[in-house]
Design a protein that fits this description.
Blueprint lengths: L2 H24 L2 H27 L6 H26 L4 H9 L7 H10 L19 H11 L1 H22 L5 H8 L1
Length: 184
């Protein structure tokens, strides 16, 4: 690869990086929350399919993979719900409901649609103007997210991965096989 080609490639990567930063910055609370809800819904479907295959005796190979992917999707939806809850100043009941629906199969997307229709996802991100000062600890975290989205997303993904790893180490909350056998 000659220098001109290498320089062109580096400039191309820089343009892609800039475009991805611009697209992150343009995402609204509504679009991010809806994307997280879709992710959570698809991971639920994958997990349920894997469980059907496992308990039908077809294969149990997909269950750990689907469980892990769903766990990651679940944590992403929870983090996004908390960020939007803080940004849009939801009442406590709406925020708690948003967290509860994350544990109910396929409920995240209907909740996101309901919240959007009720106006709970309106507007842009607070603290996008540097002159606006956050006062509370949650607002300071939100200001970091809005003002430094790439850095914050990397930090949040690392935290989600750490929590995810700890939860994988601890194992499932319920031993399903033992529960089924005890009821027989």
């Amino acid at each position: 690869m000659n220098r001109v080609t290498l320089c062109s490639f580096v400039l191309y990567l820089a343009a892609l990086y800039k475009r991805s930063l611009d697209s992150i910055a343009r995402m609204t609370p509504h679009s991010l929350h809806r994307s997280a809800a879709w992710l959570e819904m698809f991971t639920w479907a994958f997990l349920i399919l894997a469980m059907i295959l496992k308990y039908s005796g077809t294969t149990d190979a997909l269950t750990p993979i689907a469980g892990g992917i769903h766990g990651f999707g679940f944590l992403c939806f929870v983090v996004m719900t908390i960020a939007v809850w803080i940004n849009n100043r939801w009442p406590a009941g709406i925020g708690i409901l948003g967290l509860i629906v994350s544990a109910i199969p396929f409920a995240a997307l209907p909740f996101a649609i309901w919240a959007a229709n009720r106006g709970y996802l309106k507007g842009g991100w607070r603290f996008s103007d540097a002159s606006e000062e956050p006062r509370t600890l949650p607002d300071k975290g939100l200001a970091q997210l809005v003002r430094h989205p790439v850095r914050t997303i990397i930090i949040v993904l690392i935290l989600i991965a750490v929590v995810f790893g700890i939860l994988l180490y601890l194992g499932p909350p319920v031993d399903v096989e033992s529960a089924i056998e005890s009821n027989l």
